[in-house]
Amino acid sequence: MNAALHNLTGAYAAQALADTERVSFERHLDACPGCAQEVRELAETTARLGAAVATAPPPGLWDRVRAEALATGQVPPVTRRAGGGGRARQGRAVPALRFRPLLVAAAVLLVAVLSVTAVNLGVLGRSERTERTADLVAAVLAAPDARRVAAGPGGPGRASVVVSRGRGQAVFLASGLRPAPAGRTYQLWVVGRSGPRPAGLAEVAGGGRVARLLDGPVAGDEQVAMTVERRGGAARPTSEPVVVVDLRA
Amino acid sequence: MRKANPPGPPDRTLSEPTDTDGARVALTWTRREPAGRRAETPLRLPVGDDGLEGLLTLVALGDEQAFAELYRRVAAPVFGLVSKVVRNPAQAEEVAQEVFVELWRTASRFDPARGTARAWIMTCAHRRAVDRVRSAERAARRDDLAGRRDQGRPYDEVAEQVETSLEREHVRRSLDALTDLQREAVVLAYYGGYTHREIAELLGVPSGTVRTRLRDGLLRLRDHLGVGA
After folding, report:
1. Does residue B32 sit within a domain?
2. ipTM of model
3. Rounded distance, CA A86 to CA A79, Å?
4. What is the pTM assigned to this prediction?
5. Which of A191, B14, B125, B185 could form a disulfide with B213 if both were Cys (CB 3.0 to 4.6 A apart)?
């Protein structure tokens, strides 16, 4: 049986198996490191075959790709513990994820949030509170009416705000953010008609990530801004915002 | 804040995934060089560490600039391969678009431990192209197959379109190093999008024989191209 299965590596790498055959061979790959390694090498080989027929695409393709991509949610990374996890299928995505990108994003962000809040609440050290904060963030991200708005260009890292009008709440998200300078902190603001009001301090976790539930209600027609303030925060912003997310956009 | 960023060559500012919790979400990165610097990166797809891994990681974080750069680097291989398999130009464009949206959507699924970014991207492109010819054109291709069987070997017309350039020449020489039967199987399967059963039917040999030729052929190609993984 195994000899016949081992023989499928080439057909698999060339994607010459029918769907049912492919599925059962992938099961075999999970259990056969030799075949898995060979498939890896043959996939590198077929990639060369593909690159050998490179042709410049039509000029309009990028615009269409970009437009469609920006309207498409992204699948979050798979969290894999050491020694665990199945192998990724060739070019196959998990179809269910496309329906609720924000929901699944919440799963990823829980990791970030847990580490953020672990810093926030370091003195208290109560895991229940950590979990509760993470739950609140996840609830906003997973809300049926959750909407994600990206920050304008030019700011540090990548920032966005996910807002749920139904819950009247919003979460500030960022990645690639450098830690605030010594003695200073990032502070978030919700800017409505009556001007900015403080919405909490943004602690930067590993990977420059922030996932912070904004203090107070958010209607969804405000702007969210982040400034650099003295440690402990300020009652009113004292500097130009480094990030602005316009929820009206 | 951007001024404080350390200078570095384009695309090399990305650090490896950290192992703090064994999760791939624990990626660290700093801002990339301004667009002016990045434009100097060569437009080739070099062998080996070509920065695609880093780009994919940034794309997974929703970085549009990284996505544009990724597109710039792999659009030609992706579009060329898809065109080769799908053949119909309008459909090829559609499929190529699907491929890039899929790359955007699932970039986080890329795992460097399981192969290079280029292999992952090209596998995704090939899969989409093959899916297209196997669904929409399945019926037509069945007729096509029956017709072709009487006309002799169809792979030449595919193979002869593999034009020359350094990489093409290298791949072509490697294909030449295969036996005729191996080359036929590899070309029909990979560029033609046929399943091993279809190829068996086409050539009038058992499908097990086709599977063996595919494996032996690709293994020989691997050795000839010096592919490691």
Report:
1. no
2. 0.72
3. 11
4. 0.55
5. B185
